[in-house]
Amino acid sequence: MTAAIDIAGARLRPDDLVELRALVETGASKSLPRRVLLVVDFRPSMLQGRSRAFRSVAAAEALTVLGWQVAEAGGYVGLMTLGTGAPVRVPLASGAAGMRQVISGFVRGHETAAAHATAGLLDDMPLDRLLSVLDLSGEESCAVVIASGFEFPGGGCAALLQALSAKHPVRLVHVTDAAEAEDTTGQDRALGLPVVTLDAGLPPEAMPSVLAEMFR
Predict the structure, then answer these.
(1) Which of 148, 133, 120, 145 has its CA nearest to residue 42?
(2) Measured CA distances, 213 to 65, 126, 130 (Å)
(3) What is the DSSP letter of 41?
């Protein structure tokens, strides 16, 4: 798949992400944080996939499922997208209205990323440079969940994440294609933080069980 082709699994649609609310699991609130910032990687390397969906789409779906779980438990959810151009930011908010703003941010960020890729901007900026603008200094304790393929992390990525994790719980979702998993094995683990691996070929219905491992 390439970002320039409008085929199944290459786009994010708001209604599809809203419908993921139905996947919220009973009892998930027991282990979830009350405040979560979702950070999604929409760099060019994520705009591809060999199975059900682009890795960028699977990343957004998984984070949306987590966001709905937190929101349904009465918590607060925000968003930051990473990619070519300025990040899309959505401040932490509660309830269904807050999640709809997050979903709108996912869609806007993905459409912008796809447009840049279609225009030929196909080089990934190092992840540490993009994460360096993440500022939670004015926030009370807030979990940060980053979904990425973790290609091109940059030399300062591990140190940056470790510094962030000293103040806020940080979790990583390593999004892979099963066919490419051997090429990326160990990249996320080298960052030294708790991580779960998500195959982009999994249907959204399977994502809650994968995400449940993060905050046990």
Answers:
(1) 148
(2) 14, 27, 26
(3) E
Cα torsion 32, 38, 39, 45 to 10°: value is 90
Query: Angle, nearest 10°, between helix axes 95-118 and 55-72?
Result: 170
Task: Could you list the beta-strand ranges (E) of 72-142.
Answer: 76-82, 89-94
Q: Which of 72, 82, 79, 88 is nearest to 24 (CA)?
A: 72
Length, in residues, of the chain: 216
- How many helices and strands (H and E) does the chain possess? 7, 6
Give the model confidence (pLDDT) of 150-176 as tens digits. Answer: 999 999 999 999 999 999 999 999 999
Q: How far apart, in whole angstroms, are the C-alpha atoms of residue 81 and residue 45?
A: 14
Q: What is the pLDDT of residue 98?
A: 97
Question: How far is residue 16 from each of residues 134, 158, 168, measured CA to CA in Å?
Answer: 28, 34, 30
Query: Rounded CA gap, 78 and 89, in Å?
Result: 8
Cα 79 off chain centre by: 9
Q: Are strands 76-82 and 89-94 parallel, antiparallel or unpaired?
A: antiparallel
Q: What kind and span of H or E run contains 55?
A: helix 55-72
Instruction: Render pLDDT for 5-47 as a digit per residue (tens, 0 to 9).
Output: 455 678 999 999 999 999 987 655 668 899 999 999 999 999 9
Bridge partners, 78 (sequence order): 37
Instruction: Residue 40: name the closest of 182, 158, 206, 198 by CA.
Output: 198
Assessment of whether the complete model's pTM goes beyond 0.90: yes
d(CA 112, CA 88): 10
